[in-house]
Write a structure and sequence with these properties.
alpha/beta; Aminopeptidase; six-stranded mixed β-sheet; two-stranded parallel ribbon; about 30% strand; GNAT_dom; acyltransferase activity, transferring groups other than amino-acyl groups; Acyl_CoA_acyltransferase; N-acetyltransferase
């Protein structure tokens, strides 16, 4: 498997992947909108057997420090439980850190994202419509962020999700 930056030649395959992976096209539409709005910061694909088998996107967020939001992640049905999502997330985290990002937020399953260092406790003091036990933060650098509280906002495209 090869992980590389998404480019326009991957767009159709990425859209189909998200449509297949989720119960509605909402996540596929989100990816398209984040691209159109210029809010996609890191977008990676996993290629295996000559096809796109995974995708992850990190988008810009408003916060008191340089932050990204991790979402969405999709993996082809026949490639799930094989480490594709984990490899994409780890590479995205590595690239975010190298680019000077100070923290990454994710809204998801704490049991899954804890393995990457995300913590609901680290995000607990941040104000967001998504606040709660599933909002997590991964501080980058020295495992801290410049501000431990305040308002955070995902890119505007996220407001279309239910």
């Amino acid at each position: 498997m090869i992980i590389e930056a998404e480019d326009s030649s991957h767009h159709i395959a990425v859209r189909l992947l998200h449509v297949e992976a989720f119960p509605s096209p909402a996540e596929a539409d989100l990816v398209d909108q984040l691209r159109r709005d210029g809010d996609a910061s890191i977008s990676l694909v996993a290629i295996a057997e000559g096809r796109v088998v995974g995708h992850v996107m990190f988008s810009r967020m408003k916060a008191a420090f340089r932050a990204l939001g991790l979402a969405p992640v999709a993996v082809a049905v026949d490639k799930r439980m094989q480490g594709v999502a984990a490899a994409l997330i780890e590479e995205g985290i590595k690239r975010a850190k190298a680019d000077g990002c100070e923290g990454i937020f994710v809204l998801g399953d704490p049991d899954y994202y804890r393995r990457f260092g995300f913590s609901a406790g680290a995000a607990a003091a941040f104000e967001s419509p998504f606040a709660g036990p599933h909002l997590m933060l991964l501080p980058l650098g020295d495992m801290s962020v410049p501000s431990n509280a305040g308002q955070i906002e995902y890119a505007p495209a996220f407001s279309t999700l239910g």
